[in-house]
Amino acid sequence: MPIDGLHLLADIPRYWAPKRPDKAATVFEGNIVTWADFDRLTSQVGNGIIEAGVKPQGRVGYLGKNSDLYFQLLFGAAKANAVMVGINWRLAPPEVEYIVNDAGIEVLFVEEEFFGVIGQVREHLAPVRLFVAMSGHGHGWEAYADWRDGQSDQDPRLPADPEDVCVQLYTSGTTGRPKGVQLSHRGFFVQRAADEMAGEWNSWNERDVIMIPMPVFHVGGTGWGFQGFYNGATQVILGQAEPGQIIDTIQEYRVTKVFVVPAVLQFMLQHEKAKTADFSHVRVVLYGASPIPEEVLVKALDTFKCPFVQLYGMTETSGSVTYLPPEVHVPGSTKLRSCGVPFHGVEIIIADGEGNPQPPGQVGEILIRSPAIMKGYWNLPEATAEAVKDGWYHSGDAGYMDEDGYIYVYDRVKDMIVSGGENIYPAEVESALFKHPAVADAAVIGVPSERWGEEVKAVVVREPDTHLTEQELIAFVRTQIAGYKTPKSVDFVETLPRNPSGKLLKKDLREAYWKDQARRVG
């Protein structure tokens, strides 16, 4: 059941600090912060944000890898009723510049590794009034520890409403620009209450230790972290999801709950350390972004000897909306290809192009209605109205529902590519491709990948009398956008398939690559 008195992110450290003062709230690279200290430090951060002139619902940003300091910022910002914007550290400088300016970030916290990125675009970051270096003294900025510790540790207790936005996460843009997804306190809290009703696998106790290996600029990192904080657990935070380090961390800190994408799980199982590791204290392994291949499941069940649960959701839904329960994780089960059943309080229908519900087995778009649906895309009312109609979020995923209510994702109505858990929109990649003078026409699609589920492929028409190579084009695109969005391969063709009105027929383009696949997305 929901915990009485918890309605805002800021309530969480206030609630657990007196109840579990000496228990570790966060662990990062050997540094342990107790719940009592976490409450105090987040109050200092909140006061620092207020002192910097950030008004309620103003934006603060973080550019860095996973760290305990990020969660101090997240909950500290909540105490100032500010909105936390996690920036994807894999982005190219122009992309970072766009997000900082689009969000209107007033205080930007930067990890040392990314001082150079900000250095390239700093003169264009008009909204930022204060830069804080998470370590060192980048460009003469104030160091985070000095800035934080110079503030009062009295809780500012600024008033806030559960409907206020607390987190803004950016998704790749369908029109070539990322969109800021506004998530409210209420969305996070109602989602956690729904999770608790899903079964014994999601019960919590005072001994629980979770690991956070997924990036915090994703809902899979921040959202999973929130669930642990909400339940008073210890959060062991990893800077990056390196398989050997994940295995070592699970053993060293006796982690009880793990969330990873299937690609990371597969890399863990392939690691030499997995053969002798002690996973006996792991109570459940959760995974998302794609189904688990049966051969990986068999090996995982034998290795971990604990329940497995698949989660399906997206940033716009504040995280998971369906779960595939442990009892279905049986080799040979046809339901292994599904993403499960809706959580309590979540409604899902399969709809045709007019929004009419489809019968079991009929493919249509997956529509979702839930109290956890985003408040909207930041400053994009038209995109918000297109995505959420009459309270139903149009996921862009095509799928069907079986007679038992299990949801199967079959294809995507939109063109989004999911590669290793990262969402990639072709429009962004195509925009970068067209900047090359030798590109006359281009299309970007996702193609099957054993390692990543899907990977990015560009299909390109060269300008006449040019001799552009695959390697040259990939290298060029890498200077424009993040490496993970860059095409892994390029096919050169004479023409691209289009209908009489000139619309690109991506479904036809993808067919050659997906025709032998049981599932049409990664």
How would you summarize this macromolecular structure in one to three sentences?
29% of the residues lie in helices and 26% in strands. It is of the alpha/beta class and 522 residues long.
What does this molecule look like?
The chain is an alpha/beta fold and 522 residues long. Among the domains are: 11-240, ANL, N-terminal domain (Rossmann fold, 3-Layer(aba) Sandwich), CATH 3.40.50.12780; 417-514, ANL, C-terminal domain (GMP Synthetase, Chain A, domain 3, 2-Layer Sandwich), CATH 3.30.300. Helices cover 29% and strands 26% of the residues. It contains 15 helices and 27 strands. The strands form five sheets. A nine-stranded mixed β-sheet has the order 2-1-11-10-12-13-14-15-16, sandwiched between helices. Strands 7-6-5-3-4-8-9-19 form an eight-stranded mixed β-sheet, sandwiched between helices. A hairpin with a 3-residue loop joins strand 25 and strand 26 (453-462). Helix 1 (11-19) runs antiparallel to helix 2 (35-51) and helix 9 (243-252) crosses helix 10 (262-270). The chain is globular and about 65 Å long.
Topology (elements, then pairings):
Layout: H1 11-19, E1 24-28, E2 31-34, H2 35-51, E3 59-63, H3 68-79, E4 83-87, H4 93-103, E5 105-110, H5 115-121, E6 130-133, E7 142-143, H6 144-149, E8 165-171, E9 179-184, H7 185-196, E10 209-212, H8 219-230, E11 234-237, H9 243-252, E12 257-260, H10 262-270, E13 284-288, H11 294-304, E14 308-314, E15 319-324, E16 341-342, E17 347-351, E18 364-369, E19 376-377, H12 381-387, E20 388-389, E21 392-401, E22 407-412, E23 417-419, E24 422-424, H13 426-433, E25 439-449, E26 453-462, H14 470-478, E27 489-492, H15 506-514
Parallel strand pairs: 1-11, 3-4, 3-5, 4-8, 5-6, 6-7, 10-11, 10-12, 12-13, 13-14, 26-27
Antiparallel strand pairs: 1-2, 8-9, 9-19, 14-15, 15-16, 17-18, 18-21, 20-21, 21-22, 23-24, 25-26
Helix pairs in contact: 1-2, 2-3, 4-5, 9-10
